[in-house]
Protein 1
Amino acid sequence: MKTSIATVSIAGDFQEKLTAIANAGFDGIEIFENDFLAFDGSPTDVGNMIRDMGLEITLFQPFRDFEGMPSDKRQKTMDRAERKFDLMQELGTDLILICSNISPHSLGGIDRAAEDFFELGERAAKRKLRIGFEALAWGRHINDHRDAWEVVRRANHDNVGIILDSFHTLARKIDPNSIRSIPGDKIFIVQLADAPLIDMDLLYWSRHFRNMPGEGDLAVTDFMKAVAATGYQGPISLEIFNDQFRSGSPKSIAVDGHRSLIYLMDQVARQEPDVEIDLPAMPDRILVKGIEFIEFAADEREAEELTKLLETLGFRLVGKHISKDVTRWRQGDINVVINTEQEGFAHSSYILRGTTVCAIGLKVEDAKATTERAKALNAELFSQPVGPGELTVPSIRGVGGSVIYFLDDTSDLGKIWDIEFLTPETVDELDEAGLISIDHLAQTMNYEDILTWLLFYTSIFNTLKKPMVDVVDPAGLVRSQVVENTQKSFRLTLNGAENHRTLAGHFIKERLGSAVQHVAFSTNDIFKTLEDMRARGFKPLQISQNYYDDLEARFDLDNDLSTKLRQNNILYDKDDDGEYFQVYSQTYGEGFFFEVVERRGGYDGYGAPNAQFRITAQKQHLRPTTVPKDATG
């Protein structure tokens, strides 16, 4: 499988783009003409530079307004094509993309277009070049790949083929299975792009909102399954127009792009086992059974503060590491690790960001297989020296440079608490407060990073994404994207801040990057749990009484429930499937906090309608010196 990407897909000058593309593992590039024109170098120099980086030029594009031009303009169009052929030969590529005509001068007619392509095919053949015809979704006369294929079929020339683009097919809701009737050798290249479902002008949608396969809502996998069924063996290439990508990191976007193609073709290969696809061997997407632990990096003083907060939540010290300054706190199935080592990864994390969640441990079916899949999908592996008696735990880098460890029950990794930790001589015998498990983790990041981590989690792990929702902060919107497994034992919320005046944005700024901002624990009885936590000194976040007045009106709550919610600062939500109760700790440090939730019935959300009131209360609680003056709206 040869992978390719259009230079227009990523930011940077031409040389920056090439470097990022080559380092990400692509085999080739589509040269978007404007990128070449803006570069100060001859076509021969550009071609040599590309090949020196181990890349090939899979396509030169675009050539516009070709087919169906009236007779007084037709010859000039042919002459213009010949000049592009000169350029292609100097660059060292043999394929050009011709997109369907949008000129008001163009004339309709399949046969007329076929005659134009036959003549141009003759000219191309003399130079050993190929021309590919692509139907733009907004083409004046041809805007459907089925019509483009009919033009190519009637042209009946070895040097004329069709170019397929997933966006142009799927945006117009054309059945991709119609591709299966096209001979694979007549498809000259396949371009891929996903996009969120938005009802807008096709051209504007295409030029601003395309994203990588797997990041949007289009049926790109079905499209590629249809292409694979034709026997097509050529390059698969990304053509992404996205304002966010154009201003992002070339390295990050290129890595995302390569990951998206591998993930896509892995899905196709598993769903179409009879189709031969040349892919690196990798395990299937990995089932995450749950979050085995969260690890905080801290110094001794801040660890003491964090310990006191955990004790108010009902956690008990149950283990001390055999050789490191690391402690284990437990309640229900929840493990919290506090690392105060003066060297190693956790210490480096603390120096950079202060007390924060530096790592999470995931319980998976097979830790080794998880690492193998992550590596095949360009994830960054992590390792550090292992001391006497310690296990080598498979791990990769995660959000914000944090670490994700993988544990399983098929090896000694499932006994890590017994192997690496000693039980303290005295263990707090107080009853726990009723916390059962980690309901979800909330990872906060800049908005432009959400798609990167969405693709990361959904490509490596057997997870689903839920529709993005807007979380209202008085200082602006925060976009929230949920990733979870079907068992609901692994839930993440990826929260993207668009400015630093929001609480989420302030957290990112103070933490110098993305990190876990809050951890939500589940309970079966939030009122009893809160009573137990209060007895230990827990102080819940104070919620405005006006919130409860409105709550009573919205949900017609009975007086008893309403009073209990109000007295305990518990927020409430309800839908057709069930109810949701949530209470928050006061903020710790620069915006980190804990949450306790109870789900009743089939409620599957995260209390998004309550976010605005929670955020307002948190901003009021934060120290005045840490909150921008305009951050409270």
Note: The CA atoms of residues 93 and 315 lie 64 Å apart.
Protein 2
Amino acid sequence: MPPVHTALIGVALPHLTVSPEHGQLTGAGVEGFYRAGRRLLSRCRLRVAGRDPVASQAGMTGADRTRFVSTVRTPSAPGPDPDVMVERVRHAEGTERLTLRNFSPRPLRLPVEVALGTDLADLGAIASGGAGPDLPASVHDAGLRWASAAGSVSVTATPAPADALASAGLLRWEFPLPPGGEVTVELRVRQEGTGPVRPPGRATPGVFAPARATGDDPAVDTLLRTCVEDLRALLVRAPAHPADLHLAAGAPWRAGGPAPAEALAAARMALPLGTRLAAGTLRALARTQYTGPGPRGGLIPGPRRDAGPHLPPGCTGTEATLLFPVLLAEARRWGLTDRETEELLPAAERCLRRLPDTVGDGVYVTDWTGDAGPGGLARCEIQAHAHRAALLGAELLDACGRPGGRGLREWAERLRGAFRREFWIEDPSGGRPAAARTADGRLVPHLGAAAAHLLDTGLLAGGALAPGLLDAAQTGRLARLLASPAMDSGWGLRSLSAREAEYNPFGHRAGVVRVQETAVAVAGLAAAGHEREATSLLRGVLAAAGGFGHRLPEMYAGEQRTGHGAPVPHPAACRPAATAAAAPVLLLTTLTGVRPDAPAGTVTLRPLPGAPLGELGLTGLRVAGAPFSVRVSRLGLAMVEEAADGLQLGV
């Protein structure tokens, strides 16, 4: 795959742009303008007075906008200083604005040309090195046009060019510029037959609450605002159901394919921003669920996922099926309406009925292996997802007057007892949970970040936490393992312990830091009372965010942190990514300890006692459908500053 770790990626799905830091699109790698996974423009090279501008600065000014600043020294310049500044603002939805400013004390007559080209290649073909050559262009209106079997695309310019040379893909102008004067050219890229498209995040500003952060650490507000922008940029909708918004997994590589587990996990972490995303995600995935009889009944399909060097690929459909009722139950706690809950409850019941059907005479939930049904491998994180789904699902069924809650609780109790006995590897240092258990009872012993899901228990009525799969002693031991140098890189939690065979700091599941797993670990450790371990991981991932300009990628290298510096990027990581953008929302609300119970009209505050970031205030969240604000003092005391009428502080 072409590296993208230094690329500037603007996203407003279904549109995105991938740009190098110098701003010139040369057709190399994955550069270009895209719509729905199709590259509409691969080359956009600007020359002023016969010269390439010299790049000075580049950066994101929003999730969908990239700004480049460069300079040109014209042949008539009297000295070594540049006399023309060029600003390029590239918008993901298909526009680029070029502004040239004359800073010399004399008038200039500037020849300007833009070389354009495209291959109309599919993003998957580009990723695998299968992109074709540039297509021939034709002059079209005030610009150029390209066509192939994949469709047609045009670029129009305002003002119209003085000359358009189709054979070379060139648009040319000549601008007189007085001293201090400026001129602007706008290029608009459009796929013919699609019409103008507004980014979903702009067209539907109410999807996410306008959350802000204040306090002793000014970086947290920048991080939170960037995350909300990225979440808006990743919103997608099904054409047949445009009201149901959900998140794409990430850009550029995972903006089109289905990723139900990531969509559900991100929507769950983003619940403090409102329940609209959760409702749209659940409705969209409920339509993909197998509803008929047979071994697939109730399954939400999903692709297989690499699990690292020690385990075979896992089924994300199993994970998504278990996350569905959890998200519905917790969204109801945050303020999902009774009508929406009732609408989605049948799909959740089908998910929950899969638990006894999948387990059969056993107790563990094993991997789904297609038509063959469940396989023999029981992964530790899947047991955690299943246990949480059973407990939260049982409470949901009871609250909605549906049967089945008692059976789910009884099965969860059996799983809890068996897991504590049979999934724990004893050793002189205190033991550790196995990564998986095979059909013949053999334990897979390696330690990885997937174990963090054992700490994620879920939210019950009144702000209480569901019991976990581990007992108190085992939880304490796992907390110490996650905080050890082998797992805590200083930038977050490694996906595989540095002491394990085949550890690779750049391994997708063999040593990289994955932001989602670190956030889950921080929240779970904080809930279990392990403040020191939670704080260490929290500080690490927040420091990493600063190294990435507060736009966290889905993963980065698990190299040990030394001094200040910055984490090492992973060349193929998506940035933005749905789970990485939602994770800081979970981290910051973990610090304030907000645990709502909208049906009961209460909210409980359980802030992290040590106040690791000093004073912290979160405004513009949503609980029970109304704005909610909370502040934690430097002493770790929390208070509600804004809440819905009638919402009471729980005990």
Note: The mean pLDDT is 93.
Protein 3
Amino acid sequence: MSLPPELNFLTPFFVPPSIALKEADWLLSGFDDNIWEYSFGFKTPKIIDWNVILNDGSSLIDHKNKDLLDGFKYFITASTNNQSQSVTNATGTRANELGRALHVVDFILLNAQTFLLAEHGLAGLGRDSLKLILSEIASSKDSAESVYGWSKRASLYCLNLALKANQSDIKRALKEWPELTQITPEQIDNNTLDIPLEVVPQVRAALYLNGIYRHARGKGYVANSVTISKDIYRNTLKGRFEDKPVIEMLVIKDHESFVREFLPIMVTTATRERMGESNFHEYKKTLYGLGNLHEVGLPAPAAADLVSAKNFMMETDIAGRFRTLPSRIVFSAVRNAIEIHIKHGKIIVDGWCRIALHCKLKGISSSELTDKELHRVVGDDLRKLGVEGLGLSRRGAGTIYADRTKGPITEYFKDLRANKGLLELVKVYVGAAQIVVGALMARRVGELKELHAAKCLDTSEQWLIFENRKSTYRLFGTRQTEARPIEPIAVQMIKNLIRLQKILKRLGYSNELKEVFCSPSIHGGLSLANVTSHTYNQNLDFFCDYFETETNEEGKRYYIRQHQLRRFFAMLFFYSSSFGGLETLQWMLGHTDVKHVWQYITESLDGATLKGAKTQYVAESLINGDIQNFENLAALMKFRYGTEDFSIVDADELEDHLSELLDEGTVTIEPEFFEDDDGQKFKVIAKVVGAVA
């Protein structure tokens, strides 16, 4: 059909889809080529190799799979085609559209056996299969996990590599490169591998022997994800050539000496955060593009099934739940933190400042300071406390984590608890301040990390000033500055840390005041390092090892984290109903009415944290035998567990079940206020409002 010149702009709409959808300006190769080159202005074009093996052992480029191959090709080119998708011409947007289409194809190829892809092709994808694709892709914000199962597949790959390796070679590698055995606390906290910790050194050695490590500036030696991907994703289009997130557990640090005394009790359920709603919508739109295959006469999912998938809804943006820290651990930690401040807080700060002044007057660095000089300068109080040197790391204490899986093999932690290192003592004290402020203020860790020495307290020193991390809605990203009443003991600790910074600033060790919870680097030096997540948690780890927080039957220790402390304030309120202490809370918050205290708590804590505090309190009460105050709930729990002795029930499991009952509306947990001869009081009441299932 020939159009008049003034209507030439309509010409593309009269081109048959079988021709129009073959064209894409990013495609540098012919549509029928078995290897595609493509570019969105890349320095070097990328490739798509269609020679992949299907579930029946045949190749996608074999003649018998012609319809399936063309179906994938049309699906991918159509994903950025203006006619089919009404997309913009922005290069970045179109590159993302292509990326999503390749993710869909790769997921189908990786699960070819499940979908019987070689036997039934794309037409075999019914509505259940299409919804499965969407639900799995949306299961994580990170496509490396949701599409490729990176952590799981990499774990299997690494374990197989270690099993196949010659054990003599493994031992030789560990001897040649002892850093392979060093696992840092941060790596354990962020571990995504499904590999026992004691096997990690052997896995690293196997990767080293196979030449898979490469050096990354500022990070150390990392496992080359592309090298691994070419093996485990060899039957994908994009996955085998694409960088994956660095696996922290496999990183060999350039400079790292701090380790914890014991393995940690894990603090999270490890539930992945789901994909956001807008991104999920984009993947639905991309998958719906399989309908274009009907226009070119190729096998495709039924139109009704595609519509059903397009209308598919699922919950997005769900974060994992943090495991409970038993209330006795928090109470003990807060008590220890307050005691070290009252007994030794001032002399610890004074001692550090004395050393800083001495080095300044002598014109020497801390590395030139002898233990004998330090012993003379720090003062009688610290000498009596046990201080012998600036830091234990200078005394050859940096042993490796792998040797401590059954307990320490050096005197390091004995020396730590004997107060022999002043640097470590300062970090323990900063950790103590973090415990007290963190437990009593119930703030997010980001808010506490950013507390600034110059402006975190108001002029009356009764209010903590911080920037609310969840207050940017309709404020164009600007966080709202808020004030909350703060307990005097926490103020004292903060002021002591501010005093430390002011003295160091006057002595020239810093140009300005920094974040309140700055602490010395374990590598030495008298200046205070900026607060990072790593240093913040490191101070807490020092505190936990110093005061020897509880260990479980596996010999793992509770290493406290701020997200676990957030519910403590509400827990304090609940427990005050049974052993007193509510007056302290009322005085601290300036509220005379117990209902006002509860209102303050509900306003200060988000719903998830408050729910966690409720379920923890009730679970601990049941486990401790407090049945009479929760009779109906105990009966409901007996129906599930078949016993009234809840001390034999796993605490985490009991909390999880209570949380489910709260979500369902079967149970409510609230304080009930009443008046007696002694004034206004309350009890925590658990009401069963639904039927027993």
Note: The chain is about 45% helix and 10% strand.
Protein 4
Amino acid sequence: MRPIQRIRYALAVSALLLAGSLSGCGDGTGSAGPCVPSPNGTPVTAAPSSGTAAPGTRDLATNPEINSGYRSDMAAVRTTGYAVSTANSHATRAACEVLRAGGTAADALITAQTVLGLTEPQASGLGGGAFLLYYNAEDETVEAYDGRETAPAAATENYLRWISDTDRSEPRPDTRASGRSIGVPGVMRMLGTLHSDHGHTEWRELFDAAVGLADQGFEISPRLAGQIAESAPELARDPGTSEYFLNPDGSPKAAGTMLTNPALSKTLNTLATEGADALYTGPIAQDIVAATGTTTGGRTPGMLTAADLAGYRAEKRTPLCTDYREHEVCGMPGPSSGGITVAATLGILENFDIPALPPDRVDANGGVPRAEAAHLIAEAERLAYADRDKYVADPDYVPLPGNSPDTLVDPQYLRERAGLIDPARSMGTAQPGDFGPSAFGAGPQQPEHGTSHISVVDSYGNAAAMTTTVESAFGSFHMVDGFLLNNQLTDFAADPFAPDGAPVANRVEPGKRPRSSMSPTLVFERGDGSGPGALTHVVGSPGGSVIIQFVVKTLVGMLDWGLDPQQAVSAVSFGAANTPLTGVGGEHPAIDATADGAHDPLVTGLRERGHQVSVAPQTSGLSVLARDGDTGWVGGADPRREGEVLGDTR
């Protein structure tokens, strides 16, 4: 981009990001103008009094993040050449401007991530990690990028369990808020690798939008304000988070408050000028090490070192691609369990006539799932999660059965697993598959929390699906140089041994990457064996361990039931991990959550089949794009968050 073009581009981005509100724009047609906000249904609002639970009372198994309402009757957004969907309007607009200026999906993704780290800091940022699937249209290949955090070299299997072998008390104030939870951040080195492989716009220009917002300020959104309020006691422990997110009297900053972040602006400018390595060596790296090792507020320090940062490498892995009916579905391999668990669930469901069980009363909000279908899908998920919980971990440390993910998604094996499902009765808790003697035991499922997701398709036909996270809301509550550090190591099993005494596959080890549920997904027409067919869908969601269920219900909605992306995203969220509990999203207008769902047909239908049903609001943040004709795209953003889809003029 020539200098004059860069100036015009930066001015355009700043104008768009600072103009207007986050909702209510558009012509009412559901068509997207050139990076101009389009109609998004009823604006998202702060959670109703019955939604957001008080700190410590929310059921993290089905509702890992705060409930922030539901935007009814959202319309799908149609574009002709490029499209982007993220969880925050600022990020969507900035990424869309990169695409309009001729950037690739890789370029737009980098800009979206830098903006999300500023405007949605509770979910992702420079101090976190990510998983990415990238489709290169020129050679028709799919690449999987692993930017997952790693444990420090000094971490032992009891690193999260107790302070030391001589002081067997829990890290203070708790494991998550101590320095022990902080892993080596991976997202920036991963994005640097991505840009080297697929970037077109100059690296430094991709930071302009975030720098402009950090300098000029942005308004705290209702969702961010709600999360600040819930996390205020923990934010008060760290001088940086306290000053940034709380008022001088300790009260949480409210929605509409203007935030600037000069420290992050400085960090972003350094990264823009010096490249991604500036986070891993030099002053920023030194600050990360110091923040991790702090004892301020009585916190137990972590053992992350400068050598841990300097030695971090983003990995390129082989994507996991499996057939589902007439489609090929590609997901992330380990250390994410998302690709394997989604593929296994779909492979089990392929043995049932799910297309014959579409939702009733389909409308803009996706209709109402039938109890028969929800039962089969939840049971398939239980079986898939059972294998995930026992066998899936960092593949560089723990081999999968048969030394390949193909073993867990083998069609014959999944046909046998499908035979364990009783159409009339829930199994409650499934047993993992038997692959002979195993050195590992099945540990308890770790609670996972907040994330964000970005879906992009550029005008060249490239596509990116990236799920990005700092783990819990606001990560470890350690703030450094304007950004938050992750608490990703709490995705490891805190207890390294199973009840039978066998080591848990997902236990802490030096340099290891914790298991994840992030499920960025690309869908293609089934190919001829030489490679994938045409790209048809770009899918992903935040939501902790429930991400897998959100992605499955959306894929089934589109691939089996013919819903458009917005209907599939908006539809009732439902599903199960490997416990007797089945979640049904009570935030959806079609679900009667009063009296614990006692009068709702879907809920009662599941309970009649033996499910223990929770109607707690579900907090997906799906961002979905689907092919519309030869060159067009249609997109959906989750009504449960503040996301938006934008693209070029139809």
Note: The longest helix spans residues 371-391.
